[in-house]
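Predict the assembly for these three chains.
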Amino acid sequence: MENSVLTIQTLTHFFGGLKAVSNFELDLPQGVIWGIIGPNGAGKTTVFNLITGVYRPSQGKIIFLGEDITNLKPHSIIQKGIARTFQNIRLFGNVTVLDNVRIGLHPNYHSSIWEAILRSGRFRKEEKRVRDEAMSLLEHFNLASRWDEKARNLPYGEQRRLEIARALATKPKLLLLDEPAAGMNPKEVDSLMDLIYKIKSEFNLTVLLIEHQMRFVMRICEHIKVMDFGETIAEGPPVEIQNNPQVIEAYLGKGGIH
Amino acid sequence: MLGIFFPSISVKGGDFVDLSTIFNFQQLVNGLQLGAIYALIALGYTMVYGIIRLINFAHGDFYMIGAYSIYFFGVYFLAGHTGIHPIFVFIMAVIISMAAGALIAVLANQIAYKPLRYRPRLSALITAVGVSMFLEYLFSSLPFIGPSYLAFPNDAVIPRTEYLLGGVHLNNYQIIDLGVAILLMAFLTWFVRGTMTGKAMRAVSLDKDASKLMGIDIEKIITITFLIGGAFAGVAGLLAGITYPRINPYMGILPGLKAFVAAVLGGIGIIPGAMLGAFLLGIAEVFATSFNSLLGEGIAFAILILVLIFRPQGLLGEKTAEKV
Amino acid sequence: MKIPNFLRKSTVQFLLYSLAFYLVIYFLNQLNVLSGYPLLIIEISLIYVILATSLNLINGFTGQFSIGHMGFAAVGAYVSGTLTTLIWKLSIDQPIYQTLPLFVIALIVGGIAAALIGFLIGLPTLRLRGDYLAIVTLGFGEIIRTIINNIDYVGGPRGLLGIPQLSNFTLISIFTFLTLYVLRGIVFSSHGRAFISVREDEVASELVGIHTTKYKVLAFTIGAFFAGIAGGLLCHLIQIAHPTQFGFLPSFMVLVIVYLGGMGSLTGSVIAAFLLTILEKYLLPLGLQMLSAWTQPTFGFQVGVEWRMVIYALLLIIMMLFRPEGIMGMKEARFMIPEEH
């Protein structure tokens, strides 16, 4: 596709003898919010892990902005412009909120370790730039007042927001969100949706997300892929997915709907 | 670590390296014998690791304690009670060494490891280093033990007899070492596969939380694991004592490390893997030593590094991916 | 009274405190208050500061578990000792302007050699988790010792003897302060935060774009470099390099210092290095004597100095059980934190 951000072809992954992901295909256009849904163990997070290089695919090809990233190391993939969050929040718990974001800014940091030792002019300038950028990101996420707090002491909702802030610090073009609404109440989910819309337009992002909360997915995603046992069983706009008998079956079991 | 290496088996030979003196049946027997001792230590290592993901640095010291228990048994009991049937003496020695190893292992778990169960994994590892150091230096500081080598009363426990079989020198110690190890390994295999406790152990090593929800008493299983592991290490100390009859408080460090290497080689947490790894390592070490003594000392670590680079899951292990 | 602004700067404070420490000890020594043994204790404490803070970079900040730190010190000691003693045949009778530059070069070459070994150790261990790494570093220490034992040129098991006493309080102080200055500079920078992110969550760190393997190797290389320097200073202080000096026992002592002081606190390592050295040299012999007064009549044996390792081991276990964060936790004294910009 002409303006596609991420193209995945015949992506397949085995864990031992188990086929966790099978022939996954994706052609993600620029600037959209797409979702992947499916029951537990359907292989959704594995797809994220394959995209970000945590696992090396058994088969298939991943192309990001025209470049084959299939066999790159995770940190190189992130540096190319993909960022992600985690199903179970993975912040750097013992460091401050500010430092969590500053660590996300590190790959774009331009001062050597020698300059750090000597505290050179360039080092000071870089440190100031990184600090200012981090603070402005925190302001976006309404976390600026907590900058000095240890990340592990934040309440759950703020930890989720901080994780997204840290992901954005890496200056991504594509953001992968792994169950961003998990554990949130309806009110929090609403404000999360607003936040995702807001950062998407402000940071010019493309978003791919995994989610269980149907209400959330159906409202925010323009296009949904449904996975079950590693296979893609359906895809299309939310309305279509909602009425797809195969999808209903995967979620509720055979004969679940009368 | 005071330069006390595991006694290596020396080979008589000429000045030139004759490959037939290195790769022959005699060496194979020596390797199997060393492997049997490694196997008994490695089993405890691997079981504890499988259950609580702790490299128990002190495990080699349980082996040392097993050896010392028999030293005292020899000095304070056997010396004053001659005329007991030798088989009976040997059985007593086996029981005592196993009890000593098991006791210390269970105590170490209760006092030092249990309170740290839900702390970061590194905490327990550091504590294990502390426990190991404590046992070694306590033994070397106690005036009736001391840091220097003591002669192990091997002839009092079981007298040595030699056989010549088709040009190969065998002795009863080799048969005993292998026999005891194989017997205990058979027992362990039955225990883990055939009993409810054994099945619970396997369940805990697969998934601690799920096992707890299924009503398994995790702490009880951990205690039993330490008990068996400690007992096996203790009896390994007895076997090493009769085979290489010089013991000191640091004797457990290197065999402990090498047994750990054996466990990693076979696939850590996998019981048959530890046995396989130990025998392979024992044989490799004997062959390497007869080639060059420096090589013999280093081969275990060379194997460790190679395994970790090329097959980190070990020979019998399955590749598992970290959950993200 | 108003404190001038520049004195509030932590780097200025760091330099002032260092200078003050140096001058106080120097004059006490000149006045014969600290001459001889007490001065030696302070010098050894400073060397332990270098060892502990550099190990802290690996274990405390980067979250790796290296327990063979003295192996790197051995490399530094033997390389620098070989240069000064066997190759250049330096002696303290030569004028200082001849020996000093060569000694400093020897120390740095020793540090670089250790760093190289640290780099090589770092490479294969990249993929290892903390607990495997511990075994590899322990094995590495053993291998280094075995190799030294087998090199006749440096004395083998007898050790390298007759090393000129080129280390002195001034030189040791300078190297210690330099080490602290460099380490605090690294730790409190974006690179330092990269090290810490590896400790906090290696996977997450990689997935925010940090080249985690690079930082792990870097931690080993830098840590080994300073350990090498410390080894060189030590053997030129006590005039001998011996394989047992660098075995597991002293490595263990450095480990205890790091955990006692607090993982991820340079200040803690400094405090603990002094505390433990003084404990070992003064308090422990006294305590053991008092203990002997009880054990001698009761059990019929003395509690000699060899019991100190038993006590260290107990100290480590008790600390892990009751205060795992150590003296300082992850906190630093203010003068150890440079200003950000």
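The radius of gyration of chain C is 20 Å. Chain C has one domain: 9-247.
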